[in-house]
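The instructor's notes for this session suggest beginning with a concrete chain rather than abstract definitions. Hand out the sequence below and ask the class to guess, before any prediction is shown, which regions might be ordered.
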Amino acid sequence: MKKQQGFTLIETLIAILILTLTIGALLSLAAGGFYSVRYSRNQIVANNLLQESIEYLRNSRDTSFEQGVSWNNWQTNVLSVDTSGVATGTGNNGCFSSNGCYIDPYTTGPKIKECPSGVCPFVYYYPDSSFYGYNGHPYPFSIGSNPIYQTSFVRTIRISPSGSDPNQLVVTAVITWLNGKTQRSVSQKILITNWRQ
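After discussion, reveal the predicted structure:
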């Protein structure tokens, strides 16, 4: 009768060690992949929120010009506003202040508001429509039974005169967010001009 041999204790321990290291490496790769996916998704959302605010400002300027509003009146009545969106009539509030402003293009009220105490509000996510906006906003869709989620995205717009040319404004848009525990940001600076001069 032939005697069968099994694995020795040392061979079994080495096999378990190799299996453990392999599973650990695979889990580490998966975790890194999830982090990369989340970072990429957040980067795309931030860029879209940034572009939305800049496009809204350009559209606001062009719409005002079409309605016969002058360059100076557009600045004082649309961009220089308080925290509730009411025009202050001066050139140092709203988007011109150190607090900056935020843009909510989908609300039925004022679209541009000064950030209270230098801290702009968080952007919210509406999962029923995959929509990003602000809390309590009257966008005409059914929110349904799903709750809205506060994201870590904060949009801040600051506008300043462009040197000595009164027909140009420098717009700096910044989106900040948390990716895990790391704060990230993306910004863009553009020049808006008075093309009706």
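Then share the key points. The two ends are 106 Å apart (CA to CA). The mean pLDDT is 85.
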